[in-house]
Amino acid sequence: MLLPSKARRMRDALADWNHKEIVFYGVLTDQFGNPVTGATVTGKVSVNNGLREGVDTISGTSGSDGRFTLGGTKGESLVISVVKPGYVMSTDQVTFIYSYIWAPSERHVPDVSHPVDVRMWKLQGAEALAKIDWHFKLPHTNQPIRIDLLEGQVVSAGGDLIITVERPEGEISSRTFQSWGAGLQAVDGGLIDGGRAYRVTFAAPADGYGKSPAWKFATNSPSNWTTFLSQGVFLKSRNNRLQAKVALGIGINMYPEEKMTIDIRGNINTNGSGNWEATIER
């Protein structure tokens, strides 16, 4: 008896493990918790079943309760997008895995009784923002570094953001693992970790800002060690008149005599309203 060829075995495995029924139950809600009705929901289904590799498109419309269902095809994963005039998507989870090649914890399990909440943002009207893109090369110091976000300058007093880089002595590299990190503090305001929602948040959070001292981020074990730390941050300063969302990156100096780097990119609302709608990509 002839055994199936390697190509045949691979094709059969893909057909069995990677070609699953695509069913998705979702509900659209805006930032006020209201259902978003009459929105067009599109799903891009990745297909790789051993006979065909490509993308299929499925679609649906949200009902009066904001609910929608996508299905009617097979594939390995689904990416959703939503379109309705006056709204944009503000959810960071748009890809859903169905393939059994992935671990159970990473696969999406559809449940009609618990639809996925897909958050939308109802536009209120964009305001002018200050766009910043600052880059610093500085010698390491144990002293706090004050940065004026509007001017892009290190200042001796005032400013908006205080960064304290904690670095041990000697070389820091993959050859000589040593933990290091940074402390962050807002001047006359507060900070929130932007987390996964950083890119899809279009208004400053109303509360939850940490006071002095704020929080720290660090690389302190071989499993998460790196020479460059990055973090999305929501920040208020100048007694809440300045409200910003920024991407902060800090690169440590490998040797004490070298310079470390600090990169700060983002957008600032200077009128105190916290409206970031101008950051929406259209």
Label this structure with key terms.
about 280 residues, mainly beta, 5-stranded antiparallel beta sheet, about 45% strand
How would you describe this protein?
- With 282 residues, the protein is mostly beta strands.
- The chain folds into 2 domains: 6-122, Immunoglobulin-like (Sandwich); 130-279, no CATH class.
- The chain contains 1 helix and 18 strands.
- It has one helix at residues 6-17; strands at 20-29, 40-48, 53-61, 67-75, 77-83, 87-89, 95-97, 116-122, 130-139, 145-148, 153-155, 161-166, 180-186, 190-193, 216-219, 228-237, 242-251, 259-269.
- The longest helix has 12 residues, at 6-17.
- The mean pLDDT is 89.
Task: Offer a quick outline of the entry.
The protein has 282 residues and is mainly beta. Helix content is 4%, strand content 45%.
